[in-house]
Amino acid sequence: MGNTYHSIWLHLIWSTKNRKPLITSGLKFHLYEKVREICHEKEYHTDFINGTDDHVHLLLSLNPKFAVSETVKNIKGLTWQWVNEEKRTEEYFEWQDGYAVISVSPSNVHKVRNYIRNQEKHHLHTSYEQETDWLKNTVHLQTISTP
Questions:
Q1: Alpha carbon separation from 67 to 14, 80, 111, 131 (Å, rounded)
Q2: CATH number of 127's domain
Q3: CA distance 147 to 135
Q4: Total structural domains in the chain?
């Protein structure tokens, strides 16, 4: 029987509904731990996670048996459910529809990890909208419709 080798690195980004600043300091690390727990249970390899009060960046290595859309659906859906069932926010918590996914060359994993690590500092001077515009122009993100 042959072996299958893969190195599929993805940088995922998604935001809270209407970019409300719901990811408070009291929620942030619990939410990230929940993402790691979900990824572990689903067999997605989580490398690094960080973000700000209105969005999340996640670097992961994905086995080719998993579809990206299902992976994001699982992470967002299960965290949304957890935040609301556990009443982790004062108001109803929702994720924005959609997400960004960027493939990462193995040689650039450390650069993306550092970019994610420095989100708080980065967003002192750059808004989420500016960041997504920069990503669209720099890595040529394409928009697709999702049902």
A1: 17, 20, 24, 25
A2: 3.30.70.1290
A3: 23
A4: 1
